[in-house]
Amino acid sequence: MTKYFASRASTAASIGLLWGGLALLPAVGHAQESSLAGRTLEDAKLYFTAPLSWDKKNWEVFGGAVAAIVAAHEYDGDVRTHFVKGSSTALDGKDRHSTRDALPTAAIFAGTWAYAALLQSRGGYAEGWSMAEAAGLSAVSASALKLAAGRLRPNETAQVDRWSESGSSFPSLHATLAFAVGTVLAESGEDNYRWVRRALGYGVALGTAYARVHDNAHWLSDSVAGGALGMSTAIFVLNRRQHSSSVESQIGVLPVERGMMLTYSVPLR
Q: Which domain holds residue 9?
């Protein structure tokens, strides 16, 4: 039980590092914050009810992710053995590198907001908010899955299938947040620097997922599941942002005396 609460404290610390980056930045503006907050609440509702409206393609992608997790699970034991062979601390239940493994993701998050604040870039603020939303939504999902799965970590047991035992291994929250933030970085902005963004965003995400397995803090399938959850959440948020942007300016038809009038409206900020 002590190990369980220590693990929950480590999880909370990781989220705190990520969201703490906001404290470094000035307010975006009351009106814009209100608009973003309202949009985020709407996004959250759509996110958690999304499976109810999935089409065939969505279910195929979901099935592919599940297949990847199942395949990774088959190698959980072998991968653990490879990394902990000869280690005298393999089953001490300690996660010594939780903070270190969260720092690269936190740096991307805080750096995005700092860059936006420095240049007063609306696009930068939007990207930072998308990172925060993707991280928040995926963190809630990951935490719920952890409670439901109850899987023991590889630093607590050498047995792969120790589920429903108040563990917090599945999925990896570090990998979830890294892929959520990294995917937003990789797929946002202009295409001129797309390769740089993708190298940094996906590189940090993959490095974080690898570190969690290498350090015996998670099973391989934990990191694969976290990566799938974080990436899919980020894609959802980016698609929602693109949809919201596309409806900000509208073309319409207004009836007038002796005919119709074509209208074009743009919100003033």
A: 2-265
